[in-house]
Amino acid sequence: KLRMQSFLGVLTRSSMMWSLAVRRLPLLRGRDALGLPLLVRRSTSGVDPPHHGKVAVMYPQILNRRLSRVRSAEEVLALVDSHSESFDCIHLGTAFVSLSRHAAGQYFDLQGDPTFDVLLTRLRTLLPQARPRTLASVWFALAKLQCDPEKEKELLLQLAHASAVHLPRFNHRDVTSTIWACGYLGVAFESKDGRQFLDDLVEVSAQKLRHDPNPSPLSLSNSLWAYARLRRHPERDFIRQLLDESQESLPNFQPRDLSQTLWAVATLRCDPGKGFLDDVVTATRRQMRDFSDNDAHIMRKAFGEFGIDLAEVLHPSDD
Questions:
Q1: Residue 159 burial (CB < 10 Å; 0-12/13-18/19+)?
Q2: SS3 42
Q3: How far apart are CA 166 and CA 169, in angstroms?
Q4: Are the C-beta atoms of 303 and 313 separated by less than 8 Å?
Q5: pLDDT band for position 248 (50/70/90)?
Q6: Of the four, 34, 113, 174, 277, which is 20 to 30 A from 56 by CA?
């Protein structure tokens, strides 16, 4: 009898503890504007809070997965509207990249959207906590969205300050994305700190390339192009090394890689050598059908800097 009473007492206490634990767990409660499940926490009084986007939260992993799998810019903004207060740095980077994928070149149109303003505000708040991958993702996304560097000087300078702290810890991919974005945006900081960031970015980029035994065509072309766009570049011997590595990789270059590289060589005013130009001509003939109008225009101007007519490249005379 005593054993039974003891057993029942333990069982009762266990049930009470389990009940209290369950009350503190998030509950699946409703769905957001996209039909995604929401988690609402019970209040300490035991009364559930009302179902609002500001109260509802989603597990971080689920939220990041949803942000990466959206099918439109509207879905990104809907998630921002419902869950912006739950965003951490990882969510922020994913949201910007997804938005740039579905709204490339539409930064001007997005500026009038209050939800996009919420995303920018969240970015400014989280910048001090951001790590290299998030920072590189935001740089890349702002470039793809075609952010206006003149109108967003303050934002870009804040991003540069946050990036400068972690620049030595950027991996090769992060550096390539960041320097490409800065080049694409034509970033030209007036402040000393901003200019120093660009100088340091170019130096770190060169260091990463020096230690990469097999740089990709994209890495080579993006780096050369960014050096030319930013009007900053490492020593000439290193540029020569990049051109030699590019020449070896020319058969694997895509049309955009070819146009960026040849434009950079012409802009940097370096002598690539006849062998390099001959190989570029061969690669251009092989892929000309895949060139966009813009890339073809760039190639025409770049070839012209070396006294080469693109029409002659494509349709060589019998002579």
A1: buried
A2: coil
A3: 5
A4: yes
A5: very high
A6: 113
